[in-house]
């Protein structure tokens, strides 16, 4: 049985809310859903590809697997390390943050 299957049924029956149900889903699935959402909203392929890549890099770098794992201070620390170690400009971490916020806003 899929991990989210029981949650989907409880959500359908209004036993748990949509956000609580989504909290247990793998983040990779949420990012895939966000990418599809952006495709349906006519975002350019380049923007969508870059935004999804940024979010996936944050998730991998911070080792987040589920929405409940996401921690803003871990993201800030990871971005600070990347800025220092990868010589990112000041605007690059901001674009990572914008992509992350946009992705998690639909979950």
TL;DR of this structure?
The chain has helices spanning 5-12, 18-23, 27-40, 45-62, 72-85, 91-105. With 107 residues, it is an all-alpha fold. The longest helix has 18 residues, at 45-62.
What is the secondary structure topology, with strand pairs?
Elements: H1 5-12, H2 18-23, H3 27-40, H4 45-62, H5 72-85, H6 91-105
Task: Name its key features.
70% helix, mainly alpha
Would you mind describing this structure in some detail?
This protein has 107 residues and is mostly helical. The chain has six helices and no strands. The longest helix is centred in the middle third of the chain and has 18 residues, at 45-62. The chain is flat and about 35 Å long.
End-to-end span in angstroms?
Answer: 22 Å
Unreliable sequence segments: none
Count of separate DSSP helical elements: 6
CA gyration radius, whole angstroms: 15 Å
Sheet-strand content, in percent, reads: under 5%
Order of helices and strands: HHHHHH
Helix content: over 70%
User: What's the total number of strands?
Assistant: 0
Shape: flat
Based on helices, strands and strand pairing, what is the structural class? mainly alpha
Largest sheet: none
Average pLDDT reading? 83
């Amino acid at each position: 049985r899929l991990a989210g299957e029981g949650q989907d049924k409880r959500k359908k029956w209004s036993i748990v809310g949509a956000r609580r149900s989504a909290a247990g889903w793998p983040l990779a699935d949420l990012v895939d859903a966000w990418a599809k959402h952006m495709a349906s909203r006519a975002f350019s392929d380049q923007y969508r590809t870059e935004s999804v890549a940024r979010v996936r890099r944050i998730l991998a770098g911070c080792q987040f697997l589920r929405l409940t794992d996401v921690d803003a201070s871990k993201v800030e620390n990871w971005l600070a390390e990347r800025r220092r170690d990868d010589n990112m400009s000041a605007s690059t971490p901001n674009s990572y943050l914008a992509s992350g916020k946009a992705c998690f806003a639909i979950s």
